[in-house]
Amino acid sequence: MSGGLVLGRFRSLLGSSGHAKAEQSVDLTGQELQEAVLLLQDYEASGLGWFWASNGDGRITYISDCVAQLLGRERSAIIGEPIQALFILERDEEDQVERTLPLLLSARKTFSDLQVRAAIEGKETWWSISGRPQFDGNGDFCGYRGNGNDITATRQSQRDASRLAQYDSLTGLANRHRMGKRLSATLTAYQTAKRSCAVMMMDLDRFKAVNDTLGHPAGDELLKQVAGRLTRIVNEAGCEIGRLGGDEFQIMIPDLEDRGRLGELAKSIITMVSQPYQIEGSRCVIGASVGIAIAPYDGINSEELIRSADLALYASKGGGRGQFRFYSSELHSEAERRRQIEEELRDALANDQMHVVYQPIIDTKTNRVVTLEALARWTHPELGDISPGVFIPIAEETNLIGALGDWVLKRACMEAKAWPGGVRVAVNVSAAQFGNTGFASVVAQALAHSELPPERLELELTESVFLGDEGATSDMFTQLKLLGVRLALDDFGTGYSSLSYLQHAPFDKIKIDKSFIRGITQPGNRNSAIIASIVSLATALEMDTTAEGIEAHDELHAMRKLGVKQIQGYIYAAAVPSDDVTEALLSGEWVIEPEGPSKYRPERRTVLRKVGLIHDDHRYEVMMRNLSRTGCMVEGLLDVPVGTPFVVDFGDGQLAVAVVRRSAGSTQGLEFEQQLVDDGAGGLCTRHRVSPYILAQVMTPATGAGSLGLTIPRFGQIDTGKPRSKVA
Ligand code: C2E
Ligand code: MG
Ligand code: MG
Question: What strands, in cross-sheet order, belong to the sheet with 287-295?
Answer without folding.
Answer: 240-245, 248-254, 197-205, 287-295, 324-326
